[in-house]
Predict the 3D structure of the following.
Amino acid sequence: MDKKERKIKIDEIMSLVASEQYTEACKIADEIEWQKITSFSLLHKISNLYKINCRYEEAIDIILMAYNRCPSNKNIVYSICDLYLEIEDLVNAEVYMDLYNKMAPRDVDGQILKFKQLELVEASYETRVKQLEKITSMRLSAEWEYQLAEMYHCMGLATKCVEICDKIFTMFGDGPFVMKALELKMLHKKLSPVQQDFYNQSDMAEALESYESDDEYMPGSDDNSEDDFHVKTIDMSKWNTINLQNELRDSMRELLGEDTEQILGKTDKITQSIVAPLM
């Protein structure tokens, strides 16, 4: 593959990634010899693509190529450590974690890597809580605050859990972790009137959105989904009562299957009541 062909392929990959077609993008990535690419930023993106597809070995191979081209880039070092944690390679993860902390000693992402390591080795709740408290003191994040609240909940520290849940509601006001925090708080204490009103409204909005997004049959719809039931069309030009009854019986037999004679026998009277008004 020459440079021109490779560029076309890479552009196609980026287009597929932009439209979140990660599997298709990965298939094209398999066709390219990435060791010939000099751009560390591009290699980093391709490594992330393989990571999204849970192909961690390929992701590591390519991120190490990126590191060889730019060993001073802390984001690449972070990604290497994160990938080693994904495959539970604690030895290599420790090496790159130490390297990252030397490169960015005051960066909260180093503390996040440490927390992931603690989770992997199933460290005590107390140890993990201390790490989470360190993270939340360095970064204002609904996700990390919620993780801290959840950890307090697991430890049976109801008061601290409720305090963090209230903090999440006050600081962030909306979003999935706000709703999660309110639900977590309800396990220990009643919501305040403002919180309850917000929760009820959000819950109703979510239910309405779910209802409106459901596939509903509309007259004239062209939806021919295989999951729909299709009853045999009746030729209404046959206005003879007997013919119409037979058509209805055949239609029901086709829908319900072979073991329906008993059911159909019981429905004769119903069928007759349907046909009668047409006579």
Summary: The longest helix spans residues 193-213. The chain has a mean pLDDT of 82.
